[in-house]
Amino acid sequence: MSDRQRLGRVAMEWTVALANMNVPDSVRNVTVGERSDAVLRTAMPGSDDTLLDLRFRALMSDQEWSSLPAAIRRRFTKRLAGGNTAVYAGEILETRISFTGRCVAQLARLIGAPLPTSTDSGVPMVVTVTEDMATGGQIWTRLCARRNGFPQIINSSKRFSGPTGIEEYLGRGLSMAMTIHARDGALVFHSDSYFLCVFGLRFKLPALLSPGVVTVEHAEMGEGRFLFTLRVEHPVLGVLISQSAAFWETTT
User: Is residue 73 situated within a structural domain?
Assistant: First the structure.
């Protein structure tokens, strides 16, 4: 990407930000570093200037974004560049996996095990979010404890690209385009389509051959806690996997 293209992208994202959010009087400037994504610098009450990542915000309407609790908006505008890390510690409340879901989860181990394989509940789960230095996206790492054996580690990368503007890279060339919405005060990610990249060529998978429709919901619980829910539903085979976990943000 040329310098002119980088500046054009920054200008576009800044325009989207101004058009779709209530910008406080304390907005100072746009900071352009080595990466091309736009950043708002705002003065937060009682703290130093804080850099905000607007990319999730830019994918939603003003009405949807404003309907989210302030805590959710803060988590999804947190700037993770420069070695910053977000850490969330919690507990798995419930996991249900059908027989077919177990088969799909085991097959998915071939691309890095992006789906839960254990139904243990009441066990710790830790999520870390860091910058994906190769793409400028975010790497999400989930450590799921098990009552027997080592924890399962699930890695994925959220990339701000693809037909919907955001996709989750699962591994071995498989990625999932997603849409992002607000529903009943919760932030909801919903899979739109799956793509497989082979030798530089990108192919869209038919719905029947995909792992299923993935829905991830992030809902505020109060007192600094939030609820994470995952649901994988195949158009023919029904609900394969459902999981819920409660988290709180730790100091990083």
Answer: no
Residue in the structure block whose two tokens are 């997603």: 178
Task: Please give the residue range of the domain that contains residue 202.
Answer: 86-249
| Calpha distance 79→52 (Å, rounded) | 5
In whole angstroms, give the CA distance from residue 224 to residue 239.
Answer: 30
Last residue of one domain, picked from the residues 23, 38, 66: 66
The stretch 142-160 carries a mean pLDDT of 97
Residue 127 sits in a domain of what CATH number? Answer: 2.40.128
Q: What is the pLDDT of residue 10?
A: 38
Which residue from 16, 85, 88 is spatially nearest to 54, judged by alpha carbons?
16
In the predicted model, is pLDDT for residue 20 greater than 50? no
CA distances from 40 to 74, 93, 96, 194 (A): 13, 36, 41, 32
Place of tokens 């003003």: 62
